[in-house]
Amino acid sequence: MAESHSESTSDSLTTTSSTPDQSATIPISTPRSHHVPEIPIEIISEEEMAILDAAFAATRSFLPSAIRSAAAASPSRIIAGEISNTARSIAMFSKRKLSACSSEDIEDSLLHRFRKNQALGVTDLTGTEWCEKQMENVLCLGRRKVSKAMKLGQARHLELEEEVVKRVRVKVESNEDKWALKLLSSIAGVNQFLFEGRTRELLLVGFVGGQWIVGVIDEVRKASAEDSSDTGPLLIDTKTRGRDTLPAEPQRRNGR
What we know:
The protein is an alpha+beta fold and 256 residues long. Among the domains are: 46-95, no CATH class; 145-252, no CATH class. 46% of the residues lie in helices and 19% in strands. The protein is built from ten helices and seven strands. It has helices at residues 46-61, 65-73, 75-95, 103-108, 110-114, 122-130, 132-141, 148-164, 175-196, 249-252; strands at residues 2-7, 12-18, 23-29, 120-121, 198-208, 211-222, 233-236. The strands form two sheets. Strands 4, 5, 6 and 7 form a four-stranded mixed β-sheet that branches. Strands 1-2-3 form a three-stranded antiparallel β-sheet, with no helix packed on it. Strand 5 (198-208) and strand 6 (211-222) form a beta hairpin. Helix 2 (65-73) crosses helix 3 (75-95) and helix 6 crosses helix 7. The chain is elongated, with a radius of gyration of 40 Å. The N and C termini lie far apart (122 Å).
Protein backbone atom coordinates (compact mmCIF):
# COMPACT_ATOMS: atom_id res chain seq x y z
CA MET A 1 0.00 0.00 0.00
CA ALA A 2 1.38 3.34 -1.00
CA GLU A 3 0.45 6.63 0.67
CA SER A 4 0.78 10.07 -0.78
CA HIS A 5 0.49 13.28 1.31
CA SER A 6 -0.82 16.51 -0.13
CA GLU A 7 -1.37 19.93 1.53
CA SER A 8 -4.51 21.87 0.76
CA THR A 9 -4.85 25.63 0.58
CA SER A 10 -6.92 25.68 3.77
CA ASP A 11 -5.75 25.34 7.34
CA SER A 12 -6.23 21.54 7.32
CA LEU A 13 -4.08 18.71 5.97
CA THR A 14 -5.60 15.90 3.87
CA THR A 15 -4.22 12.36 3.65
CA THR A 16 -5.09 10.28 0.61
CA SER A 17 -4.78 6.52 0.80
CA SER A 18 -5.04 4.48 -2.38
CA THR A 19 -5.64 0.73 -2.74
CA PRO A 20 -6.62 -1.35 -5.76
CA ASP A 21 -10.23 -1.39 -4.56
CA GLN A 22 -10.87 2.04 -2.91
CA SER A 23 -9.58 5.54 -2.45
CA ALA A 24 -10.44 7.84 0.50
CA THR A 25 -9.49 11.33 1.62
CA ILE A 26 -9.26 11.97 5.40
CA PRO A 27 -8.97 15.62 6.59
CA ILE A 28 -6.58 16.35 9.48
CA SER A 29 -7.39 19.68 11.20
CA THR A 30 -4.73 22.06 12.51
CA PRO A 31 -5.32 24.92 14.95
CA ARG A 32 -6.52 28.11 13.22
CA SER A 33 -4.80 31.38 14.20
CA HIS A 34 -7.30 33.69 16.04
CA HIS A 35 -7.40 37.44 15.29
CA VAL A 36 -6.88 39.44 18.49
CA PRO A 37 -8.68 42.82 18.37
CA GLU A 38 -6.62 45.88 19.16
CA ILE A 39 -7.48 47.50 22.49
CA PRO A 40 -7.67 51.31 22.25
CA ILE A 41 -5.19 53.04 24.51
CA GLU A 42 -5.72 56.58 25.79
CA ILE A 43 -2.80 58.53 27.17
CA ILE A 44 -3.53 60.21 30.50
CA SER A 45 -1.58 63.29 31.47
CA GLU A 46 0.03 63.76 34.86
CA GLU A 47 -2.53 66.41 35.80
CA GLU A 48 -5.44 64.07 35.10
CA MET A 49 -3.75 61.26 37.05
CA ALA A 50 -3.34 63.62 39.99
CA ILE A 51 -7.06 64.42 39.82
CA LEU A 52 -7.88 60.70 39.79
CA ASP A 53 -5.61 59.99 42.75
CA ALA A 54 -7.17 62.82 44.74
CA ALA A 55 -10.68 61.57 43.90
CA PHE A 56 -9.84 58.02 45.01
CA ALA A 57 -8.25 59.28 48.22
CA ALA A 58 -11.32 61.36 49.03
CA THR A 59 -13.61 58.42 48.28
CA ARG A 60 -11.70 56.05 50.56
CA SER A 61 -11.90 58.52 53.43
CA PHE A 62 -15.73 58.57 53.20
CA LEU A 63 -16.23 54.81 52.88
CA PRO A 64 -18.42 53.40 55.69
CA SER A 65 -17.07 50.77 58.03
CA ALA A 66 -19.39 48.12 56.53
CA ILE A 67 -17.86 48.59 53.09
CA ARG A 68 -14.35 48.52 54.55
CA SER A 69 -15.06 45.22 56.31
CA ALA A 70 -16.51 43.80 53.10
CA ALA A 71 -13.41 44.89 51.24
CA ALA A 72 -11.25 43.05 53.77
CA ALA A 73 -13.40 39.90 53.43
CA SER A 74 -13.54 39.87 49.61
CA PRO A 75 -10.84 42.15 48.18
CA SER A 76 -11.17 40.75 44.68
CA ARG A 77 -14.72 42.12 44.30
CA ILE A 78 -13.69 45.58 45.48
CA ILE A 79 -10.65 45.56 43.19
CA ALA A 80 -12.84 44.64 40.21
CA GLY A 81 -15.20 47.50 41.05
CA GLU A 82 -12.33 49.96 41.37
CA ILE A 83 -10.93 48.86 38.02
CA SER A 84 -14.25 49.44 36.26
CA ASN A 85 -14.67 52.83 37.97
CA THR A 86 -11.12 53.75 37.01
CA ALA A 87 -11.78 52.86 33.39
CA ARG A 88 -14.88 55.04 33.30
CA SER A 89 -13.06 57.90 35.03
CA ILE A 90 -10.13 57.70 32.63
CA ALA A 91 -12.46 57.81 29.64
CA MET A 92 -14.31 60.78 31.13
CA PHE A 93 -11.21 62.79 31.99
CA SER A 94 -9.43 62.00 28.72
CA LYS A 95 -12.36 63.33 26.69
CA ARG A 96 -12.82 66.43 28.86
CA LYS A 97 -11.00 69.61 27.94
CA LEU A 98 -9.05 71.17 30.76
CA SER A 99 -9.60 74.70 29.53
CA ALA A 100 -12.38 76.52 31.34
CA CYS A 101 -13.92 77.98 28.20
CA SER A 102 -13.34 77.03 24.56
CA SER A 103 -13.79 79.14 21.47
CA GLU A 104 -17.03 77.28 20.65
CA ASP A 105 -18.44 78.17 24.08
CA ILE A 106 -17.62 81.83 23.50
CA GLU A 107 -19.28 81.83 20.07
CA ASP A 108 -22.39 80.14 21.50
CA SER A 109 -22.71 82.52 24.47
CA LEU A 110 -25.72 84.81 24.64
CA LEU A 111 -23.46 87.87 24.85
CA HIS A 112 -21.73 86.95 21.58
CA ARG A 113 -24.98 86.04 19.83
CA PHE A 114 -27.22 88.95 20.86
CA ARG A 115 -24.99 91.75 22.17
CA LYS A 116 -21.90 91.41 20.00
CA ASN A 117 -22.18 94.79 18.26
CA GLN A 118 -24.12 96.77 20.85
CA ALA A 119 -23.95 97.79 24.46
CA LEU A 120 -25.33 95.80 27.35
CA GLY A 121 -28.38 97.17 29.07
CA VAL A 122 -28.79 97.29 32.81
CA THR A 123 -32.00 95.33 32.25
CA ASP A 124 -29.89 92.54 30.73
CA LEU A 125 -27.87 92.29 33.94
CA THR A 126 -30.77 92.55 36.37
CA GLY A 127 -32.91 90.18 34.30
CA THR A 128 -30.14 87.58 34.25
CA GLU A 129 -29.66 87.94 38.01
CA TRP A 130 -33.40 87.52 38.60
CA CYS A 131 -33.84 84.43 36.36
CA GLU A 132 -31.25 83.26 33.85
CA LYS A 133 -33.64 80.94 32.03
CA GLN A 134 -36.25 83.65 31.63
CA MET A 135 -33.63 85.98 30.15
CA GLU A 136 -32.50 83.24 27.77
CA ASN A 137 -36.09 82.73 26.59
CA VAL A 138 -36.52 86.48 26.07
CA LEU A 139 -33.40 86.66 23.90
CA CYS A 140 -34.10 83.50 21.92
CA LEU A 141 -37.89 83.68 21.60
CA GLY A 142 -38.59 87.39 22.01
CA ARG A 143 -40.42 89.38 24.63
CA ARG A 144 -44.04 88.78 25.42
CA LYS A 145 -46.68 90.91 23.76
CA VAL A 146 -47.58 94.20 25.35
CA SER A 147 -50.67 93.63 27.45
CA LYS A 148 -53.26 96.10 28.69
CA ALA A 149 -51.64 96.26 32.12
CA MET A 150 -48.26 97.01 30.54
CA LYS A 151 -49.77 99.85 28.51
CA LEU A 152 -51.26 101.33 31.68
CA GLY A 153 -47.85 101.13 33.35
CA GLN A 154 -46.19 102.91 30.44
CA ALA A 155 -48.82 105.64 30.56
CA ARG A 156 -48.25 106.09 34.31
CA HIS A 157 -44.49 106.42 33.81
CA LEU A 158 -45.10 109.02 31.11
CA GLU A 159 -47.31 111.02 33.49
CA LEU A 160 -44.63 110.99 36.20
CA GLU A 161 -41.99 112.06 33.69
CA GLU A 162 -44.08 114.99 32.45
CA GLU A 163 -44.38 116.23 36.04
CA VAL A 164 -40.62 116.85 36.09
CA VAL A 165 -39.38 116.98 32.49
CA LYS A 166 -40.88 118.84 29.56
CA ARG A 167 -40.89 116.62 26.50
CA VAL A 168 -40.00 118.15 23.13
CA ARG A 169 -40.49 116.33 19.83
CA VAL A 170 -37.31 116.31 17.70
CA LYS A 171 -36.94 114.76 14.24
CA VAL A 172 -33.93 112.48 13.82
CA GLU A 173 -32.57 111.15 10.53
CA SER A 174 -29.65 108.90 11.53
CA ASN A 175 -28.25 106.89 14.40
CA GLU A 176 -25.85 109.73 15.14
CA ASP A 177 -28.79 112.11 15.56
CA LYS A 178 -30.49 109.59 17.82
CA TRP A 179 -27.49 109.24 20.13
CA ALA A 180 -26.83 112.98 20.09
CA LEU A 181 -30.40 113.55 21.27
CA LYS A 182 -29.95 110.97 24.04
CA LEU A 183 -26.73 112.59 25.24
CA LEU A 184 -28.27 116.08 25.19
CA SER A 185 -31.22 114.78 27.21
CA SER A 186 -28.79 113.21 29.68
CA ILE A 187 -26.89 116.49 30.06
CA ALA A 188 -30.15 118.35 30.62
CA GLY A 189 -31.17 115.78 33.24
CA VAL A 190 -27.88 116.14 35.12
CA ASN A 191 -28.24 119.93 35.16
CA GLN A 192 -31.81 119.60 36.42
CA PHE A 193 -30.66 117.29 39.20
CA LEU A 194 -27.88 119.68 40.24
CA PHE A 195 -30.02 122.84 40.26
CA GLU A 196 -33.50 121.52 41.11
CA GLY A 197 -32.55 118.41 43.07
CA ARG A 198 -34.69 116.00 41.05
CA THR A 199 -34.94 114.49 37.57
CA ARG A 200 -36.45 111.48 35.81
CA GLU A 201 -35.46 109.10 32.98
CA LEU A 202 -31.78 109.93 33.31
CA LEU A 203 -29.61 108.11 30.76
CA LEU A 204 -26.26 106.77 31.98
CA VAL A 205 -23.51 105.28 29.80
CA GLY A 206 -20.44 103.57 31.23
CA PHE A 207 -17.57 101.30 30.26
CA VAL A 208 -17.23 98.46 32.78
CA GLY A 209 -15.00 95.40 32.38
CA GLY A 210 -14.36 96.08 28.70
CA GLN A 211 -18.09 96.30 27.94
CA TRP A 212 -20.34 99.28 27.29
CA ILE A 213 -23.24 99.49 29.74
CA VAL A 214 -26.34 101.61 29.11
CA GLY A 215 -29.07 102.24 31.66
CA VAL A 216 -31.86 104.65 32.53
CA ILE A 217 -32.57 105.79 36.09
CA ASP A 218 -36.29 106.00 36.74
CA GLU A 219 -35.97 108.90 39.19
CA VAL A 220 -33.11 110.42 41.17
CA ARG A 221 -33.36 113.18 43.76
CA LYS A 222 -31.18 114.80 46.37
CA ALA A 223 -31.69 113.61 49.93
CA SER A 224 -33.07 116.26 52.26
CA ALA A 225 -32.11 116.66 55.90
CA GLU A 226 -35.42 115.14 57.01
CA ASP A 227 -35.10 112.08 54.78
CA SER A 228 -31.65 110.97 55.78
CA SER A 229 -28.38 112.20 57.15
CA ASP A 230 -26.68 110.81 54.06
CA THR A 231 -25.93 113.45 51.46
CA GLY A 232 -25.92 110.97 48.57
CA PRO A 233 -28.66 110.92 45.92
CA LEU A 234 -31.77 108.79 46.31
CA LEU A 235 -32.74 106.41 43.52
CA ILE A 236 -36.48 105.84 43.19
CA ASP A 237 -38.00 103.11 41.05
CA THR A 238 -41.74 103.38 40.46
CA LYS A 239 -43.50 100.02 40.20
CA THR A 240 -46.87 99.53 38.54
CA ARG A 241 -49.03 96.49 39.23
CA GLY A 242 -51.53 94.60 37.15
CA ARG A 243 -53.53 93.57 40.22
CA ASP A 244 -54.63 95.22 43.46
CA THR A 245 -51.98 93.63 45.66
CA LEU A 246 -48.80 94.89 47.22
CA PRO A 247 -45.58 93.96 45.39
CA ALA A 248 -43.09 91.54 46.85
CA GLU A 249 -40.31 92.68 49.15
CA PRO A 250 -37.61 92.78 46.41
CA GLN A 251 -39.82 95.16 44.41
CA ARG A 252 -40.72 97.32 47.40
CA ARG A 253 -37.13 97.72 48.53
CA ASN A 254 -36.33 100.73 46.36
CA GLY A 255 -39.83 101.60 45.15
CA ARG A 256 -42.51 103.93 46.41
